[in-house]
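Section 3.1 - Work completed
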Amino acid sequence: MLPLFMGPWQIVLIVVIVLLMFGGKKIPELMRGLGTGIKEFKEATKDDDTDKVDKVDKVDKIEDKE
């Protein structure tokens, strides 16, 4: 069974494995790509929320006119 908490030694081991697999020069590129992906995801969810609010406002205006 896998523990739900990762200790400091497990984190160090994962970092060492990632460094060995990708090398020191490739890590910044990977992190930059990860950051860009997270930023795009947040913007997409924010845009989706504003679209829903706009639609609700339009429905409220239509109901007020009736």
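Second construct:
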Amino acid sequence: MPIADGVFLLAFSILPSLLRLYWVLCTMAAVLALLPLPGLAGFRAAVILSACRGKLVDMKPHKAFGPLSVSLLALCLLEVHLVRRYLETVLIMQYPPNARMHGIAYLYGISYYLVVPATLVPLALLQRLADGGLESLLGRGAMMGALPSALEATLARLSALQWLGVLAFVAGNLLQLHSHRLLANLSRGTQSGTYRIPRGGLFELVSCPHYLAEIVIYSGLGLLIGAQRPLAWLILAWVAANLVLAAGMTQAWYRRRFPSYPSRRKALFPWLY
């Protein structure tokens, strides 16, 4: 066997374990950063850098088919979400000319969007790659033409819980789009770098409805594919832990900057936190 083929097969054989380890470590890091434990200042600073976004960047210390067709549906939904976020970033959001992102957050973002799709791929496909290499898929190119009908059949077979996941995914995207539009409207007609208190929508209840929407989106993916890919729940655990951390910092930032900030407005979850 050529060395390149051997390396390829080895990489795909250990990929499931590496994906599991990635999400466990990410989630544990965010949870530890939330706990007031002594001696973790440097570690907490590094984790906070991955959670810093937007206005918080200045707070940095000196993220055959069968089960395969469900995975394809989840990957298609994820692609819709990412395309929506790209268009939203380019066409709707308003960023000041001096906006910047820390290198740690940038590198983590790249790794995140490489790992998430790989996590949603079913183990059977990864095993097929490990056993037969890339040719085991390339040799099945004729199957690609059957994907639309396979996805249509998948929709017909979805359970009530999986349909709930699809609806949660759609609702989360709509909530996030609406919240981002409200944030973008705050920046229009104001001086660069000027912030105002967000109003309207779920901003009346929480400081970060766009973060809440992200959690709803990944909860939907978990309900859709969690039975086939339990690792999807680890993605949700990491997203939730990371955004709880970011929302808490955002809430504190608003309260420091605006003495009149609504005292009853929670950080992330209405009436709870």
